[in-house]
Amino acid sequence: MKETLDIRLDESNELLFEIDVEGTLSRPSDIRFVIGSDNDFSYMIKGRIDDQGKIRVVVPPLDGKVKEGLHTSILEVLIDGKYFTPIEFSTHFKKSVS
């Protein structure tokens, strides 16, 4: 069973991840948070490593771009020229209650 993460469509959302890739001492050279869509394409948001070594991704408001409901999302990490997908989970997109 995949973990589900709630994301607000009409607000900016900050996500933090901690990963450990064995077999290398290199830090990731590229980090991408990928959101699957009902359309024939996905949304990709660039992540970065903060001062504490955590991966930080800021998901901007996506109201009007992503439909409410469940979507599959992954975290892609490029280390030593190789892509890894250390995390795959469901994202539940919904609007804030007003």
- The number of distinct β-strands equals 8
Report the order of strands and helices: EEEEEEEE
**Radius of gyration using CA atoms only:** 14 Å
Chain-averaged pLDDT? 89
Strand order of the largest sheet: 1-8-7-3-4
Task: Estimate the strand proportion.
Answer: over 45%
Tally of DSSP helical segments = 0
How many angstroms does the end-to-end distance come to?
31 Å
Task: Bin the helical content.
Answer: under 10%
Low-confidence stretches: none
Structural class: mainly beta
Question: What order do the helices and strands come in, and which of them pair?
Answer:
Elements: E1 4-8, E2 13-17, E3 30-35, E4 43-46, E5 48-49, E6 55-59, E7 69-79, E8 82-94
Parallel strand pairs: 1-8
Antiparallel strand pairs: 2-6, 3-4, 3-7, 5-6, 7-8
